[in-house]
């Protein structure tokens, strides 16, 4: 029994070591020192429509903590388009999610990165990017590009550890909602959802 518990904990520990190593090498490219907690990942996944057959774009999946929550929610791997900058994480994601489309590219240049990837508008963009470390111009360009890739009314889902929203709530023609603060995540986080009206 103890060996099976250790076997379940080992991938999580390995992922934490990978994350920490990548963060040490390039701290501003990483959204966190550790992968997203399960409760945070599940909260993000709940905003994605499982009944749609349109693609779901995940930005900065890292080792796949949020990806796993999407799959557990019932999102078919074939719908997933995983945009990851780190080539080591891309290899890991291809191994873990062989039916997903893994795109090695810069999510902050989303229009260029996705220009020949999506054949239909996405039903959601789920982001694990470190938005608060970027200038506001970069954040606004990202959400503009995400809305270009999304079907009308589809969500752009973003988490943050910050107490303020990562993208202003006052964007013209954009509605926002936020989850309760997720205290069981380390550090505590909140999920913000943006939809173009």
TrEMBL record:
Keywords: Methyltransferase, RNA-binding, S-adenosyl-L-methionine, Transferase. It comes from the Bacteria. InterPro entries: KsgA/Erm, SAM-dependent_MTases_sf. SUPFAM superfamilies: S-adenosyl-L-methionine-dependent methyltransferases (SSF53335). The keyword RNA-binding applies. One of its GO terms (biological process) is methylation. The keyword Oxidoreductase does not apply. GO terms for molecular function: methyltransferase activity. Transmembrane segments: none annotated. This is Methyltransferase. The gene is pmtA_1.
